[in-house]
Design goal:
four-stranded mixed sheet; alpha+beta; single chain
Length: 169
């Protein structure tokens, strides 16, 4: 019953905050506002897509006798637009009371404390291992451009409050 009540409070607080934002009034703090958000930056996929668009343009221009036509320019532009979309859309980690959320594959994927096996912290890497099926959450400083030191610090607190094993290397 307590969890059901907490969910109702979070839902109602989120709904009230949404309507208060629309009216320009300051939002109220509640159970829904206790999430910490860590944002990364995806640069590998946009670079790959931009490279593919340039490669497509060069192949269309030099390997055909007609040169670049309208459809070729459209495909080139769409590849570039997709690269910009991937660059602007930043991956993130949301840390709640007993759940982690990660933007992965275009979807918000949750992992509850009960699903977690361990949290491994290395220099430049933080890995949250899952018990059953499904992939681990991996946060890197080099590829994902996450602040792994801040994530490691917050996940240590999360692990302490939810009795999850932490491996530091």
């Amino acid at each position: 019953m307590a969890r059901s009540f907490e969910r109702k409070v979070r839902k109602n607080t989120a709904h009230l905050n949404k309507s208060r934002k629309k009216q320009g009034i300051q939002t109220i703090s509640g159970a829904g506002s206790t999430m910490d958000i860590f944002r990364g930056r995806n640069i590998t996929v946009p670079i790959m897509l931009a490279g593919l668009s340039v490669l497509y343009m060069l192949m269309s221009y030099f390997l055909t006798k007609t040169g670049m036509r309208g459809m070729d320019w459209l495909v080139f532009g769409l590849y570039l637009m997709l690269a910009v979309i991937f660059f602007i859309r930043r991956p993130y980690l949301k840390v709640g009371k007993d759940t982690l959320y990660m933007l992965k594959g275009g979807r918000k994927r949750p992992m509850t404390a009960g699903d977690m096996k361990a949290i491994k912290i290395e220099k430049g890497y933080v890995t949250v291992e899952r018990k059953g099926k499904g992939g681990n959450f991996i946060f890197t400083k080099s590829l994902g451009r996450y602040d792994t030191d801040a994530i490691a610090e917050r996940l240590e607190k999360f692990a302490l409050s939810n009795q999850i094993q932490v491996d530091k290397k």
